[in-house]
Amino acid sequence: MSSGLAIRALELRRGRRLLSRSLSFELAPGGFIELSGPNGSGKSTLLRVLSGLGRLEAGELLWDGRSFNCASDEHRSRTLYLAHTDGLKGALSGEENLHLFASLRQFRDRSEEIQEGLDYYEMTGLKSVPCLRLSQGQRRRIALSRLRAFPASLWLLDEPTTALDRGGIDRFADHLSDHLAAGGMAILATHQSLPERLKPAIRIALGRSS
Amino acid sequence: MNPWIQFFRSEVGLSWRERRRALLPLVFFVIVASLFPLAMSPRPLILKLIAPGVIWVDVMLATFLGLESLFRQDYEEGVLEQWILSPSSLELRVFLKVISFWTVTSLPLIVMSPILILWLSFPVRALGILLVGLFLGTVTLSFLGALGAALTVSLRQSGMLVAILLLPLATPILIFGAHSALLAADKQNPRPALYLLATLFFLTVGLVPKAISTALKVSYEV
Amino acid sequence: MTSLHEFLTMGRFGVFVWPAFGFGLLVMLFNIYLAHWREKSAFREVREVHRTSEENRS
Amino acid sequence: MTQFSLFFHRLASPPHFYELSKPWGRAFSWIALVLILVGLFGGLWLAPRDFQQGNGFRIMYVHVPSAWMSLFVFMVMAASAFVGLVWRMRLAYAVAAASAPLGAAFTAVALVTGSLWGKPMWGTYWVWDARLTSELILFFLYLGFITLNRSFEDQQTGDRAAAILALVGAVDIPIVHYSVDWWQTLHQGSSFKGLTSEIAPSMLWPLLVMMTGFMFYYGWLVLWRTRSEILLRESDREWTKRVVGS
Q1: Can you give the residue ranges of every domain in chain A?
Q2: Neighbors of chain B by Cβ distance (3+ pairs < 8 Å)
Q3: Does A21 reach chain C within 8 Å, measured CB to CB?
Q4: How many domains does chain B have?
Q5: Is B198 exposed, middle or buried (0-12, 13-18, 19+ CB in 10 A)?
Q6: pLDDT of res. A18
Q7: How big is the A-B interface in CB pairs under 8 Å?
Q8: Which residues of A touch C56 (CB under 8 A)?
Q9: Which of B90, D108, D128, D183 could bridge to B213 as Cys pair (CB 3.0-4.6 Å)?
Q10: Per-residue exposure over A113-148, b if at least 16 CB sit within 10 Å of its own CB, e if not
Q11: What ipTM was predicted for this assembly?
Q12: More confident residue, A27 or B173
């Protein structure tokens, strides 16, 4: 399996607890992985390790057959990680947050794409309202519009659909399908069941530490 | 516009927007400085001797207490995560963040210090040296305080802890800074003290951002 | 040292010399006690961790 | 793998370290006891009176070794902190966490005996002498390390945060010492040139014996405390159950 993401004998640890038996899976471009499991089973930890935040206890990671380091700039520029927290500064408005994110991703000017992303998630009307005055669902939509405004081949999403209403979930499902159709990959940690039309390439259930 | 300049302007803009919180150190600075004449004696001869020391210890405490939650809000909002994940240099971003803090919080202290120190009957001719020393010192202290803030970012509240951790490390800055002003007041040559302070300035500005970014990453690798 | 008397009084410095060595000895003994206490509390805590992880697994 | 590096490789793995350190620790404790007793006998009984200070100088035999150890232990802490940060070795963090209280203890002894020595020589218990003041600041650094190390509920974060503080502290110690020295000469002329400049051999050998004795004493205690610290940090691993279960 040459192209796509491959993980071999990955071991996860949070603090002193070994979280999961060793994990191995291969994700081809155009597919996504659904991660499920109770709280504290290591879903978020796996996403954080793959994003380059956490530290790998053991195991090997391959991208298109080549081993890589999660904390390298090369990996970080092709990955977008959406954490539990939305990563939005409360004092800034949605639009300002996205422009700040553009500077984080070293983009000189990203206003059209940001505008398009906000339109897609129907947040244009509220784009200049400080985020602390928005509802959890609205903040989630702004966080998701980040995925639209900035290119990345690998999405690491920690419960992307929490607090989203039905319309929001459908929009996200279409957005994800477009991303996958364009050859992108994604790993989703979810509690709620996803819309049926989203068929995960692989399902991984992380149980209590075995 | 260059992403770094955009980032710096948004940081300064943000702190300016919450300037009430950023100006607390200034209020603290003024109050503490005016306590000393009450605690000692109003006679100029005595005040003149302690004036630089009072201002410098006061600046140090105000800076450390102001810096304590430098990264906390970004940490809780998940923004710090995006900093670490961004494919750009974390050291430079931390550097800009500390300079933005310095501009909004420490600069007012420097602007205010001549007035306060004149209350303590400090000779006017030595004000220039005091301001140069305070400029070098506050920037250095801001970076040391930011290191303390980064080391304790995941703790709920760590007000005193940052001061306790960093005051021992900041003693050389206090010694050279306060004495450069003292020497200037006594018509002695303050230049050696200022050069030593400048050495600490460059040493800190050069090395500490790396330590700060390591400290921030540490709080994430649970 | 000429005599036991001089050794005990340290020639009017005894009031400084003996407290200094006394304090040094006290701290070094206290270190040993602390190390012993630390080992005991480490043993207790690790037993606790193993007991709870047993319960989780069963 | 040469014999030497094999030894270190095995020593670095916590379970082996736990067993290997016991015999070494016991040996160090006896050597330390003998050396300290010999040093005390040499220093308190054999060494001649100093023509200037009479018998007061004998405080040197506890002050100088503990002052030297307070610096030496901080350097050991900084080195193991560096190894811990770079190679992610839990054992290195355990050594740093084990050394900190010992270093703080040596610093406390150095401070108290220093001021007790100051009274007969300079007439006051506390004199802002450059060495004593640096010792005081070093004591604050130790307290900072211990406080930071223990203020996180996840021990790994505590270890790493304190390790960074130890490294920055180690770089800062010479700077602190120089700045305090500079400040001292500014106010009181050249700082007190201690006895060590022209010390007679009969006074010197007990000092060296005492210092070596203190080193072995530290070696014994740090191995002992490191065993407890590594046990705490490896409590999720199987081998600790055998050790604790018995």
Answers
A1: 1-78+152-210, 88-151
A2: A, D
A3: no
A4: 1
A5: middle
A6: 67
A7: 86
A8: 208-209
A9: B90
A10: bbbebbebbebbebbeebbeebeeebbbbbbbbbbb
A11: 0.87
A12: B173
